[in-house]
Amino acid sequence: MMKKYFNLLLLALLSATTMVKAQEATPIVGKVWSIEKANAWYKQYKWINGADFLPSTAINQLEMWQADTFDPATIDKELGWAESIGFNTMRVYLHSLAWKQDQEGFKKRMDQYLTIANKHKIKTVFVFFDDCWNKQAKIGKQPGPKPGIHNSGWVQDPGDPDSKNAANFPALEKYVKDVMTRFKADKRILLWDLYNEPGNSGKLTTSYPLLKSVFTWARAVNPEQPISAGIWAWDYKELNAFQALNSDVITYHDYEEPQWHQRVIDMLRSHGRPMICTEYMARTRGSLFENVMPILKKENIGAINWGLVDGKSNTKYAWDTPLPNGEEPKEWFHEVFRKDGTPYKKEEVELIKKLNDIK
Questions:
Q1: What is the pTM of this model?
Q2: Which residues, 6+ apart, have CB-to-CB distance to 180 below 8 Å?
Q3: Which one, of 227, 221, 147, 142, lies nearest residue 189 by Cα?
Q4: Residue ranges of the Glycoside hydrolase family 2 catalytic domain (predicted)?
Q5: Are 142 and 63 contacting, i.e. CB atoms less than 8 angstroms apart?
Q6: Which DSSP symbol is given to 162?
Q7: Do residues 56 and 312 lie in contact, with contact meaning Cβ atoms separated by under 8 Å?
């Protein structure tokens, strides 16, 4: 265990050194917000906290957003549970195929979602592209969950090898610009997260061209909301440098124990920008509400954990510990609530309410 932590620390230190070199050659796309503007933006909000949200009735982004399976009743119910514990922000993934299938309907459903979230006093972080999990997505009926397997039906966007093919970029540009232009001044949207974990699923730097392109497209729209793409892998120095230097607000992912999470915070502080942790809390890895969330509040860093309600995504199961018979894991990996709205752990919910000054 100590060897693992030593290696993590060594990697972080090496990354901090090599990132300086990478920054020297990093292109800046468009006009990044000044540090002063970013911090002024951040100060207008109370402490940002919430979850990555997928309704329990959806296995992936397509099932959430396609007309036949869009489920406003469940969204309303589950966001009500989030509101009850003081959560004020949800991070929500979009999908380009749902837009391609029905452009106007897709934007209407986005607006409907925002109306529901706003009723519950919840801001939204929308995510465009994603390099995680299954390589190919298909429009239409989505598969059922595989028992005991984390995110068995989650799909990449725009997929693999599609994300590597520049011939696909004009259509993706139209998608990003159409959606952002429609909502560029919408106060219900907190931030645009342009690309989730670029380079994941073995893509590495093949994701760099699309990453640079989506920032270019977003800057051309020039939304009132800030834009960002979260740092998540310290050894991806070229991607990390680009993400950090082109983001108005620094976002990042960290599923490690608090002492290692604190080191990440200390390193990212050097940018002088507001920070939001857009993924954390994996119980079996030692990243817990009780030991990480108080640090994030103390440091005034946004805290968005993965998962709100146990559902078809199966993210109560750990990434690397499938239970193919579908039995209940001894300890849930993610999620706050059971399907009936009762907390998985009452003491966690009480802590979240206390941190949010909810009596």
A1: 0.94
A2: 192, 217, 218, 221, 223
A3: 227
A4: 167-286
A5: yes
A6: G
A7: yes
